[in-house]
Amino acid sequence: MARIVMKFGGTSVSNTDRIKNVACLVKAEVDLGNEVAVVVSAMSGTTDQLVVWTNAVAQMKGSSREYDVVVASGEQITVGLLALALQNLGVKAKSWLAWQIPFYTDCVHGNARIVRIDTSIIRKDFGEGKVAVVAGFQGIAPNKSITTLGRGGSDTSAVALAVSLEADRCDIYTDVEGVYTTDPHFITKARKIDFVAHEEMLELASQGAKVLHTRAVAVAALHGLPIQVLSSLDKKPGTSIVEEGELVEKQVVTAIAYSTDEAKVTLIGLTDCPGVVGTIFEALADADINVDMIVQSVSQSGNFVDLTFTVSSSNINLVCNVLNVLKKDLGYIDIVYNTMVCKISVVGVGMRSEPGVAKIMFRTLAECGINIQLISTSEIRISVLISSGYLKLALQALHTAYGLDANCKFIKSNN
Amino acid sequence: MARIVMKFGGTSVSNTDRIKNVACLVKAEVDLGNEVAVVVSAMSGTTDQLVVWTNAVAQMKGSSREYDVVVASGEQITVGLLALALQNLGVKAKSWLAWQIPFYTDCVHGNARIVRIDTSIIRKDFGEGKVAVVAGFQGIAPNKSITTLGRGGSDTSAVALAVSLEADRCDIYTDVEGVYTTDPHFITKARKIDFVAHEEMLELASQGAKVLHTRAVAVAALHGLPIQVLSSLDKKPGTSIVEEGELVEKQVVTAIAYSTDEAKVTLIGLTDCPGVVGTIFEALADADINVDMIVQSVSQSGNFVDLTFTVSSSNINLVCNVLNVLKKDLGYIDIVYNTMVCKISVVGVGMRSEPGVAKIMFRTLAECGINIQLISTSEIRISVLISSGYLKLALQALHTAYGLDANCKFIKSNN
């Protein structure tokens, strides 16, 4: 007997037939003698519609208490319907909203963080052979207001619940077969990955792979919780996300992620004295702007430096406003920016022990005639910023160069 | 300054433009210096859709804990959107779900009764100049499950909240201009009524008038709460429901209600001994069947009686099943029933002091050649059961006979 948390996304519960299908998948786990908690999202499209309505009634930016009240309603429908569908199959089941469990969060509406989950009700229901059907995405703040965890937050709900329940694993059902070596909608040679390490998945999710919410992977990594990513619509095995030590073969490069939501900003002719760079990034952080890649280079004149960094392209106007305010204090010569850039990241835990990964990347891109504008690295990742026009060419070439194409194996480290 | 509860039905909040319109109506009351709590229904059509989904995932009859979880979600959307729309107009507003207030009910899912409303949060918000936007239709059971009050239950939510808040009045906004002398969609000469007594409204609602939930009127009558019924879509004055003592002129007949959901059942040749009739109605009550008009008449043979009563036509099969089970014990000869009947009720508090109301009814119907099958009365109501085919003819003739046609006044009692 195992204790598992199953999570179903919006496309898996998009209509009543699919909800009945989900009930069958849950029943199969119950019939194996497992204790099961199920976390569900809203029907696909519902949350989008609710967001449209909130924008229609009020010219507001961002989230608020009332925004969360509206957008949290979609999950209430699906938990009730799934509990009914399970009861109809003879499975004992009960729905739970965040305030009933409760799922305690902080007060940050629209992007709340889970503080603690009281699992006593669900454990009691397990004792009575009941399936707990839990609303994802939502929480309850200390002042009893409804909160939401941000788009994609149901993944985090599921993983956090699995950790709190000391579950054996968390199965994330979605509309794709698992995690791919790169985006299969874009690169036809992409392959499904059987096993991936938590750390690799964390890099992939944070570098643009959309299959899992980054925060969900971070929580799973922190607690060593095994995750399976698999399709609710067919019965193929999916991708297992496991601790690095459990990987039998460590790929040097496991997968390639990309992001097109990038803008490169350069401050030209910045005075080269201590504290200047700190002032800039402090001001950007205060405006809630995430800065990603950062490079400082000495200007031709000698006494000045050029500072280049990347931000989300949707933030570019805000960034320019913040920097313009600082211009008098900082005394830089000019700001230039470019939003026609994209970031490609190759990720693999084998990189730690295998030199030459960067060399392959630079040679491959050079052979394609692609100029690298910025580089950043972690222990298991190399990211480059290139011109958007070369995205597909670069992905295809790198996918081949690192041996990720279907029916092809490349560098492996020893176990 | 007054303290008022405003209630908006599904058609008044059916899209974001209408919700913005409702926000303007609420702001107008706030600008007058009033303390305002608003009760809203789900967008029209939403609850129907949710019920369809519950039926699609499970072959179940009636309501359950999970049914209530699903159908209570519609009000969560409209309270959040209305609070946002009010904030957008510069009005301080906060949404409240039943569990947050709380709105305590019993455990009867799908048809719960309000036990107590804790108004402390709303009174505190009034003190801070805030409008409380409250989800109608829903409640919370002692075991913290979500309950619903039955279709049309938002009227009851609003009236119960108004009583608990010791409000000066409750304004029920709907898609018609008020309460009419009879159904204006059916009888073109129907007129809007300016004033109606609680007791009259209670008789009208329970005899088929659909403008207000019967339980809402009963609660208002019990506590002497003034109600206004008016349109959210135009600015005409509506109908005031007040205590009988406040009526300046008491109509002998204020309005005529009708119901087509009627079936007449006759048990022929029932043994005439004590306890038999009690056994029958006890069995029907145990099967949750409401019996309305009842007549017992001596059979031609002398030792037997015929028992006739009416039930909702949707219950007719269930009634026959219950009676068939009893046949051996009761020894009646036959059951006959007829669903091609309708009930017409004339209502007016002036009836108490004015004889001759029944005479007009019987004469008018006789002149139309309409046979009366059953009669029942209260102090302020006369109801007759007639063949369905004569419904419109009877309504038109009675509307004229009692002086209810537009631009026409008939019998008035002294003040």
Automatic annotation (TrEMBL), chains A, B:
Domain ACT, chain residue ranges per copy: 265-349
Pfam families in the record: AA_kinase, ACT_9
Residues engaged in binding ATP: K7, F8, G9, G10, T174, D175, Y180, K210, V211
Pathway: Amino-acid biosynthesis; L-lysine biosynthesis via DAP pathway; (S)-tetrahydrodipicolinate from L-aspartate: step 1/4; Amino-acid biosynthesis; L-methionine biosynthesis via de novo pathway; L-homoserine from L-aspartate: step 1/3; Amino-acid biosynthesis; L-threonine biosynthesis; L-threonine from L-aspartate: step 1/5
Gene Ontology terms, MF aspect: aspartate kinase activity; ATP binding
EC code: 2.7.2.4
Catalysed reactions listed for this entry: L-aspartate + ATP = 4-phospho-L-aspartate + ADP
Binding site for substrate: T47, E75
Keywords linked to the UniProt accession: Amino-acid biosynthesis, ATP-binding, Kinase, Lysine biosynthesis, Nucleotide-binding, Repeat, Transferase
InterPro entries given in the database record: AceGlu_kinase-like_sf (IPR036393), ACT-like_dom_sf (IPR045865), ACT_Aspartokinase (IPR054352), ACT_dom (IPR002912), AKii-LysC-BS (IPR041740), Asp/Glu/Uridylate_kinase (IPR001048), Asp_kin_monofn (IPR005260), Asp_kinase (IPR001341)
GO BP, one annotated term: lysine biosynthetic process via diaminopimelate
Cellular-component GO terms for this entry: cytosol
CDD domains: AAK_AKii-LysC-BS (cd04261), ACT_AKii-LysC-BS-like_1 (cd04913), ACT_AKii-LysC-BS-like_2 (cd04936)
EC primary class: transferase
NCBIfam families: asp_kinases (TIGR00657), PRK06635.1-2 (NF005154), PRK06635.1-4 (NF005155)
Membership in a protein family: Belongs to the aspartokinase family.
Protein name in UniProt: Aspartokinase
